[in-house]
Amino acid sequence: YERHMPALLQPLARPAPTPPTDAAGRPAATAEWVRLRESWSEACGQVVEVLSLCVQQHGHRIKYFALRHKVIDKVAALLRQRDKVLALSALRFLRQCIGADDFYGRYMAKNDLLGDVAKLLELHVRRDNLINSAVLELIEFIRQKNMRGLIRYFVSRHAGVFRHVTYVDTFRLLLIRHEENEAADMAARARGSDARAGGRGDG
């Protein structure tokens, strides 16, 4: 991993090619820039697909490598690209990570790496396309598995986006699940307090 994987990640370490400017200082999408941009996007997409397979097959080795080299951060940044195919590859990778190990979800929430998922939803709201479907599937998976940390993250940080998505039940049910979790946590804390108080009384 340490010998070959850093070389594999090189496309993710390079910024997207920026277009040249014309005499007025405006971006000019030349044929050469389009070629470079497509080449960069394709390379990044291929790397992300390999990384998804690594998460699926390699367990702890890719987990610690991803942490050390900020792999998740770099892939999540691809969600900001206008290339829909590349953004979709990044979404699939994040979904693969979240389903593979709770570690990834905790890391993403702690470092606010899923904010661009909410932004993607805003951009593609009510559009019947693959990105919209992938975002909805990701959130629904988190809700069904009751991943409390990620549910709390989305509700506390991005509820403003989700409250406007009323054409599916996903986010209404996510908010309900969050409220149920919070109520259960409060009840557990109350039971713990009662138990400690009872113990002191017995003493």
UniProtKB/TrEMBL annotation:
Listed InterPro entries: P4R3-like_central_dom (IPR006887), PP4R3-like (IPR051137)
Taxonomic superkingdom: Eukaryota
Keyword terms, alphabetized: Nucleus
Molecular function terms from GO: protein phosphatase activator activity
Record's keyword annotation contains Zinc-finger: no
All residue ranges annotated as the Serine/threonine-protein phosphatase 4 regulatory subunit 3-like central domain in the record: 1-180
Gene Ontology cellular component annotations, sorted alphabetically: nucleoplasm; protein phosphatase 4 complex
Signal peptide interval: none
UniProt subcellular location: Nucleus
Keyword Thylakoid: no
This protein's name: Serine/threonine-protein phosphatase 4 regulatory subunit 3-like central domain-containing protein
